[in-house]
Design goal:
294 residues; alpha+beta; T-fold; 8-stranded antiparallel beta sheet; globular
Length: 294
């Protein structure tokens, strides 16, 4: 049996495909309910979300949920692992540039540059309390986290694919009993592909300046300078974790082409393909894409 369903959530469209002898509709409904509740809890665009409540308490201690603590602890760990290039403390920069809760897309910065606050999130794990030095945006890991949750729900199925706006998890085989075939979009023309990957178990994520762009700005902020990163066209990452794929697609993008190459050489557990501003393509040894001939 083959099942397919689409939902608009998390600021994008999610497409769920399942191949199995039996389709568990209750489990599918439960998964979609989780996705909706996740957005209500962690979206910075919803004024009643737990994240919005936290963002209204900058500089003060606040009790939060287990889930919030867990995500923030992991985000801070990955901030260290990526040499500071993945950073959830960029919400104020995004809002100042116009990517705010009202989607104004108006640059509201008074100064072109502002000092980067070097303070980090503080935790009291025993009391489930956190203190943030500035506002938080969890968009850089949210879709990847949802992919990991999907694997927990559907990992025993014969086949499954969840596409969360280009961040993808595939498992098993498709409705024709073949490996899932994921096309890698052209970084310049998103309606075209430059290659494909075939797999029966993989998480994929990408970052591209063509997405979530307004005027001369986009949402991929270099936390070192608090400005949109400008040294890359696109990054494509594959991993055995959705969250890790999501995080590293952002971190490698904002590093820039040369720094990202060095990082990947020294961090062999991360597999990726980079596309520079000039169109140069570099991929790590384990990145399994088959590129089309140009």
């Amino acid at each position: 049996m083959y099942f397919k369903e689409e939902k608009d959530c998390l600021g994008t469209r999610l497409t769920l495909e399942i191949v199995n002898d039996q389709i568990d509709q209750f489990k599918i409904t439960e998964f979609w309910s989780f996705v909706v509740s996740f957005e209500k809890q962690f979206s910075r665009f919803l004024k009643d979300s737990e994240l919005s409540k936290l963002n209204s308490h900058v500089g003060g201690w606040l009790g939060v949920s287990d889930e919030m603590i867990s995500l923030l602890v992991e985000a801070e760990r990955l901030n260290s692992e990526t040499d500071g290039y993945f950073d959830v403390l960029v919400e104020s920069t995004l809002s100042d540039l116009g990517y705010d809760s009202n989607y104004s897309f108006i640059d509201k910065r008074i100064n072109l540059l502002k000092d980067n606050d070097l303070r980090r999130v503080e935790f009291d794990l025993e009391k489930l309390m956190v203190k943030i030095p500035t506002t938080v945006d969890l968009g850089g890991l949210g879709k990847g986290y949802i992919l990991d949750v999907a694997k927990r729900y559907f990992g025993e199925m014969k086949g499954c694919c969840l596409n969360a706006g280009g961040d993808i998890w595939v498992h098993g085989t498709d409705e024709t009993d073949k490996l899932w075939k994921i096309y890698i979009e052209n970084p310049v023309n998103l309606d075209q592909a430059i290659g494909f990957i075939e797999s029966d178990e993989l998480f994929l994520a990408s970052s591209n300046v063509k997405k979530r762009r307004w005027g001369k700005h986009h949402h991929l902020i270099n936390p070192k300078f608090l400005l949109p990163a400008d040294e890359m066209l696109a990054v494509y990452v594959q991993s055995d974790s959705g969250l890790m794929a999501d995080v590293f697609s952002t971190a490698l993008f904002v590093m820039g082409f040369e720094k990202a190459k060095l990082y990947l050489i020294n961090k062999p557990h991360v597999e990726a393909m980079l596309v520079s501003n000039g169109g140069a393509i570099w991929k790590s040894a384990g990145y399994s894409v088959q590129l089309f001939e140009s």
